[in-house]
Amino acid sequence: MKNSDIKSIFDSFNQFNILIIGDVMIDSYMWGKVDRISPEAPVPIIMSTKRENRLGGAANVALNVQALGANPILCSVIGKDSNSEILQSLLKKRKLTNEGIIEDCTRVTTVKTRIISNNQHMLRVDEEIDKALENEIESKFIDHILSILSKKSVNAIIFEDYDKGCITPKVIKQIVEFANKNNIPTLVDPKKRNFMEYKNVTLFKPNFKELVEGSKIDIDKGDFEGIFSASQKLHSELSSKYLLITLSELGVFISYNKSFLTIPAEIRDIADVSGAGDTLIGTASLCLAAGLDPELIAGISNLAGGLVCEKVGVVPINKDQLLQESLEKFS
Prior knowledge:
Elements: H1 3-12, E1 17-22, E2 24-37, E3 44-57, H2 58-67, E4 71-79, H3 82-93, E5 100-104, E6 110-117, E7 120-127, H4 135-151, E8 156-160, H5 169-181, E9 186-189, E10 203-204, H6 208-215, H7 224-238, E11 242-246, E12 252-256, E13 259-263, H8 276-289, H9 294-308, H10 319-330
């Protein structure tokens, strides 16, 4: 592929509207230094030197879509609490629209607090409610999403599922039906609860652990023929066009049209794998919207997921860096 073709692909990202449905959260970080053990229990004492709140979960997918030049439209249900105010202010700060966000006083806004010392992730504290949406708010959420879809030109829809209850079988069914009727590609980053509910989507992206648990199979990560056999069963049950499986240090696996290919991971200095899946599916959505073939979708997305692992914490992709690596890899 010519350099100009790859640059044109990346330029085309700027034209796309990507609707992201899923569980949004605050990634809260506490950095500090450990130099002694507590006299109360055999645990380290961290002297906090810095705290920061960042957008996480489905909102991190939106940040990656935005970083690649496209316009993300984030749809989620959050609490109506002090943390929802923080989340709304973070959206505003990052210039992300909140038009798809609904507040519900019966829920809490999810917060994941990570405690880090000397670039070592020591502890995580989660605040959340993970029960499914109540019927009334579920219907309101679906109607709100459909209203946005009827008013805007959307080039792809991502379901970013963290099993926190925002995505329900009814949400999936009604939005996928609308998308297929209107030729909008759909992508899924699944979790266990709704794993087999994502029928008739365009691209289904579990990681290896989710594939094994969701398919109830026992195979080794390096057994590509075994993974292919499992993927064929999933294709049949879900009627998905592409199945993109992330294999961490082994790269990615993509199956389609009763065939598959694997793309090995690049050699990198891994600092933190948090958020890599968010980056990968955000990149894949733009590649799919651009009409790329499966090998390029998987290849560019694999590069993107690896690049963010070189950074500590959950951070969006750098478009220029991804373009440079794509030029080196595919031209």
